């Protein structure tokens, strides 16, 4: 792709004995709209967590504008939000 902004190459994620992602390959072009669709447990959230830097891939590479994202994950700020339904009962 000419304007590739994000590229996943051979990305795997393992949680213990469970393989959450196996050999994920895709490219996203700048300026286009994409969605992740699939059944429960297929790895949508895991892909987003890896992309956001909340978790690391077990194998493979992720590139952002041609540079490996793993370098940026080490310095990223990680934010954990706790949601209490009693505080937001109107939702």
Shape: globular
Average per-residue pLDDT, rounded, comes to 79
Number of helices: 2
Q: In what order do the strands lie side by side in the largest sheet?
A: 2-1-3-4
Secondary-structure-derived class: alpha+beta
Give Rg in angstroms: 15 Å
Largest sheet: 4 strands, antiparallel
End-to-end gap: 42 Å
SSE string, helix = H, strand = E?
EEHEEH
In percent terms, what proportion of residues is strand? 35-45%
Number of strands: 4
Helicity range:
10-25%
Poorly predicted runs: 71-79
Task: Give the tags.
alpha+beta, 4-stranded antiparallel beta sheet
Characterise this structure.
The chain is an alpha+beta fold and 91 residues long. Helices cover 14% and strands 35% of the residues. It contains 2 helices and 4 strands. The chain has helices at residues 44-52, 70-73; strands at residues 4-15, 18-29, 59-64, 67-68. Strands 2-1-3-4 form a 4-stranded antiparallel sheet. Strand 1 (4-15) and strand 2 (18-29) form a beta hairpin. The model is unreliable at 71-79 (pLDDT under 50).
Secondary structure: elements and pairs:
Elements: E1 4-15, E2 18-29, H1 44-52, E3 59-64, E4 67-68, H2 70-73
Antiparallel strand pairs: 1-2, 1-3, 3-4
TL;DR?
Strand 1 and strand 2 form a beta hairpin.
